[in-house]
Design brief:
About 40% of the residues lie in helices and about 15% in strands. The protein is α/β, with parallel strands linked by helices and about 400 residues long. α2 runs antiparallel to α11. The longest helix has 21 residues. Keywords: Biotin biosynthesis, Pyridoxal phosphate, Transferase.
């Protein structure tokens, strides 16, 4: 039998041990963490919707009329009117014919990718894609070819040398780097080489594009360019679950083939109703997006002036590149000593030597919140003796 205790101890020694923290408050910038007040810069609640009264009320009203549990899978008796209304709202929001509501983003990626490719097919996956995309590719049993991050020339060579059914899958916004995929060029390559393009825009929806319609909207791309788009509702929309949107034919195909949709109990109707309300609010949230944009610009300007190394991101995901896992943990702990919660991201989530603090900004943060973060970063840099980038 494997020595599991020894493996855990090794992770501790390497600075890679992970621990859960207990939050005893609603999701918002000012949290109670393990019984202590903290100012958080590690949530994906980009628009500050997770504790919004109007969205909470939409869930509460549906609880009264529809009850709590989904009861069964969508294909048995679990497909409620609230689910249908959410899917119609998602389709309209994304500019597509139809949509499906999945229980989680992880399940959406695994179900969609493994349904769209199988034995004898080839999937082309960006090397920095999210773990759920990687696992969806593995589950498909298709041949997997990984191309260097954002390298469309390398991808073009791979596509040109491959026969049969081809699927290209990428994040829209990369969750650990915050940068955008070269979506327009990916769409062009897929048209040229008769490949199906699938984009997971979990971190783009709500934040980028007109009305928060995501990175595809920001690039001027529609359903003909990107036939399948995936999004999560647990980030900028502040609720839970995920969706996939595309043509009616494609959604019908996924109803027949996506195992993570077919064989799981549907999400509570109240969550669907809250998500519908949230999407509608997000479309009208230009003021929040403008405030968030100002926070991002100020954060980048002032942290770089301190000597911190930032990654090339214009999104709310602002990684501070540190390098070693131990050093990243030291900075995270130092910030916590000042009441600031920013998590250190270490291997295997990121490559060796690229450990970082993943700062995420929200429209719910105020300028005063950002003042506190910047002041703490300046002090902690000196406290731990962090050298210049």
């Amino acid at each position: 039998m494997r020595d599991f205790a020894a493996e855990l101890e090794q992770r501790r020694d390497q600075g890679l041990y992970r621990q859960r923290r207990e939050v005893d408050s609603p999701q918002q910038p000012e949290l109670v963490v393990d019984g202590r007040p903290m100012l958080a810069f590690c949530s994906n609640d980009y628009l500050g919707f997770a504790n919004d009264p109007a969205i909470i009320e939409a869930a509460r009203a549906t609880l009264s009329s529809a009850g709590l549990g989904g009861g069964a899978s969508h294909l048995i008796c679990g497909h409620h009117r609230a689910h249908h209304e959410l899917e119609q709202t998602v389709a309209s929001f994304t500019g597509r014919e139809d949509a499906l509501f999945f229980s989680t983003g992880y399940m959406a990626n695994m179900g969609v990718i493994s349904a769209l490719a199988g034995r004898g097919d080839t999937i082309f996956s960006d090397r920095l894609n999210h773990a759920s995309i990687i696992d969806g590719c593995l589950l498909s049993r298709a041949r997997i070819r990984r191309y260097p991050h954002g390298d469309t020339e390398a991808l073009a060579e791979q596509l040109a040398g491959t026969e049969g059914h081809k699927v290209v899958v990428t994040d829209g916004v990369f969750s650990m780097d915050g940068d955008l995929a070269p979506l327009a060029e990916l769409a062009r390559l897929c048209r040229t080489h008769d490949a199906l393009l699938v984009v997971d825009d979990a971190h783009g929806f709500g934040v980028l594009g007109e009305g928060g319609r995501g990175s595809l909207s920001a690039c001027g791309l529609g359903q003909d360019d990107v036939p399948v788009v995936i999004g999560t509702l647990g980030k900028a929309f502040g609720t839970s679950g995920a969706f996939v949107a595309g043509s009616s034919l494609m959604m019908d195909y996924l109803v027949q083939k996506a195992r993570t949709y077919i064989y799981t109990t549907s999400m509570p109707p109240a969550i669907a109703a809250a998500s519908t309300a949230s999407i509608r609010m997000a479309m009208a949230a230009d003021d929040r997006r403008a405030h968030l944009r100002n926070l991002i610009d100020r954060f980048r300007r002032e942290t770089q002036a301190m000597g911190y190394a930032l990654m090339p991101s214009d999104t709310p995901i602002q990684p501070i590149l540190i390098g070693g896992a131990a050093e990243a943990m030291a900075l995270s702990r130092a910030l916590e000593g000042h009441g600031i919660w920013v998590t250190a991201i270490r291997p295997p989530t990121v490559p060796q030597g690229e450990s970082r603090l993943r700062v995420t900004l929200s429209a719910a943060h105020t300028e005063a919140h950002l003042d506190r973060l910047l002041q703490a970063l300046a002090v902690c840099r000196q406290e731990i003796g962090l050298t210049a980038a």
